[in-house]
Amino acid sequence: MATANEPPTQSSDDENKGPLERWTHGVLTDPAKRDRLYRALFYVACGFFLVTTLFPFYWLLVLALTPNTQILAGDWEVTVPLVGAEVPFPTPQGFNVYAFVEVFQQVPFHLYVFNSFVLASVTTVIVIALASLAGYVFGRLEFPGRGLMMLAVLAVSYFPPAAFLIPLFDAFLGNAIVVPFLGIELFAPPRLVNTPGSMIMPFSALFLPLAIFILTTFYGQIPDGLEDAARVEGTTRLGALFRVIMPLSAPGVATAAVLTFIAVYNEYFFSSIMALQNEPNQWSPLVGGILSYQTQYTTDFNLMAAASIVGVLPMLILVVVAQEKIVSGLTDGALKE
Amino acid sequence: MATDDRTAGPARRSNRSGPVVAITRWMENLGETGFAYLLLTPVVVLLGAIALYPLLRTFELSLYQNVLSDPEFVGLENYVQLFTGNADARMPGTTTFLPEVTTSGSFPYVHVEGLLRSALAVTIIFTVVSVFFETIIGFGQALVLDREFRGRRWVRAAIIIPWAIPIVIQGMIFYLMFHPDTGFLTEYLASWGLVAETNTLNDPASSLLIVTVADIWKTTAFMALLILAGLQSIDRSLYDVAEVAGASKWQQFKLITFPLVLPALGIAILFRTIDAMRVYGLIDSVSGCTTVPSLSCMVVETFNTNRGLASAIAFVTAGIIAIAVMGVIYQQYKEGL
């Protein structure tokens, strides 16, 4: 590449070159021109990323607002030229806001969303409580086997849910728990399918490790002096954790909570398998609500889109409000474990 | 680390009695190691019940006959059945990814042809292609977000949003985009030979492509955030030195940015690889698990009828992912946890 800071004095040469050649030469030699090129590239990249990430949401909005008969007609009126051909560009063919009401009339969609919220909230509380204990231990205590325990927790979180499914499903159906390889039947657990328990337990186990690693980082940063002071004041060890360390680590706790909530709300595997019938009164969450449109009302495309928008809204709000927490949580959880 | 002053707390309460006080006093008097293991108990119990027990039990089930009631011990027979499926690897576009379960074998074994290879091919193609593009696009997004500009917060939110939406809605978006009644891109993409013109969502190769694109759309943000964290940890003064030394922007990228961001990039790729190999929900909601069955799909689709085989596939899946997990653990170990 060219060296920087070379003054653009070759104007006499430039006159007998083509415009493209002159431009490349200018870019190579003139820092100001080069900066302009970088800035242009930056805006192009920025625009490209915005369009590609946001277009699918625009597509949902178009489908939701367009009456179903118009969708089936498939005429989007506008076309844009794309390499080689005119491609139809979806634009709203009407303004049917009523679809957002119909979503709740066709199936009790609000109940599915409610179930998702309950499952996500309860899981978040359990995960934060357990991860606080573990985070305190890993972040503040020295004991033999600490590194090994952390690795074990880490390893568990990476196994595919499919590897846990078959025995868990058996157990949640109420079949006896059998000690592996010994054949001893321990006890018959209660039948948990179609109840929150069959989802909250796997969710908690699945999303516990990330919360543990986030909280380990935060709890480990609280100065020992503060904990000692609380202990001198007569607080028990657990009291110091829940009344001193946890409140002081509030941002970390919030981060772990937000990420857990999002993860549970978005979960598919156990949400779709453990609620057997997609019935909202049997604790089927959002997954069941959306899938019931796909499987029962197979031609109500505007309602599918409207339901998706309703289902996405809580996450949209959460991302805008808690953006910093999500960013720091994801990067801390992954990079600083 | 935590205080060793164990007398301050309980001393004041010594005049009270009752089970709570007794337990509190017992906990206060535990050594640091004992206290650490006590606090870890709930986490260990949960992960043991939801992850470790099912994993071992899955392995045990995979060693038994492929029947539902009273299976006999058959050793590695199910694995032999899986791996000797003598059909060709079902690659996209040739025939189908569907497992061909024929009953040519003697009861109670069914002879399975190409089942594992087909699912393995789907899972590996999906993982490699999506992680490859996520890395490249994610790097681009990270470079854009690394600059200071007005509205950066909003651009970042827009890029994160796909990551935060439920898998079932991500699936719904792409289902609607390529459904014969609503899709607007099918014709154009078919003219390039990328997807099938008709029955797009029932065509294995087309579905695999659509699912891969959907995954890239959703999870690139995760990659971008991890790479961004790596970028922002680079000491800015290195660039000033490079500027003075006359290095071009490209040289700065090649000699400073890329090598220094490489560790974060490596972790991000490992994380995404592990996650992508578990793919289930996206496939299930876009095209259904019978069109492009991944490894997890196979388990879910068959575990109610082929207990032994499904367990074997589940355990093979776990084994394959375990290899990638080793990579992560090795990385953590190298950094001294």
Topology record:
The complex is a heterodimer of chains A (337) and B (337).
Chain A: H1 11-14, H2 19-29, H3 31-65, H4 68-73, E1 78-82, E2 85-89, H5 99-106, H6 109-140, H7 146-158, H8 162-172, H9 197-220, H10 224-232, H11 237-248, H12 250-266, H13 269-274, H14 286-295, H15 301-321, H16 323-335
Helix pairs in contact in A: 2-3, 3-15, 5-15, 6-9, 6-12, 6-14, 7-9, 9-12, 9-16, 10-11, 12-16, 14-15
Chain B: H1 8-13, H2 19-28, H3 32-61, H4 77-83, E1 100-102, E2 111-113, H5 115-145, H6 152-160, H7 167-178, H8 186-191, H9 204-232, H10 237-244, H11 249-276, H12 281-286, H13 295-302, H14 307-334
Antiparallel strand pairs in B: 1-2
Helix pairs in contact in B: 3-14, 4-14, 5-9, 5-11, 7-9, 9-11, 11-14, 13-14
GO cellular component, one term (chain B): plasma membrane
Transmembrane segments (chain B): 35-56, 119-145, 157-178, 216-234, 255-274, 308-330
Subcellular location (chain B): Cell membrane
Please give a structural write-up.
- The complex is a heterodimer of chains A (337) and B (337).
- By secondary structure, chain A is mainly alpha-helical.
- Chain A has two domains: 12-89, no CATH class; 99-335, MetI-like fold (Orthogonal Bundle).
- Helices cover 69% and strands 3% of the residues of chain A.
- Chain A has 16 helices and two strands.
- Chain A has a two-stranded antiparallel sheet.
- In chain A, helix 5 packs across helix 15.
- Chain B has a domain at 117-334: MetI-like fold (Orthogonal Bundle), CATH 1.10.3720.
- In chain B, helix 9 crosses helix 11 (249-276).
- The two termini of chain B are 17 Å apart.
- Chain B has a two-stranded antiparallel sheet with strand order 1-2.
- Residues 1-14 and 86-111 of chain B have low confidence and may be disordered.
- In chain B, strand 1 and strand 2 form a beta hairpin.
- Chains A and B meet through helix 3, strand 2, helix 6, helix 7 and helix 8 of A and helix 1, helix 2, helix 3, helix 5 and helix 6 of B.
- Chain A: Belongs to the binding-protein-dependent transport system permease family.
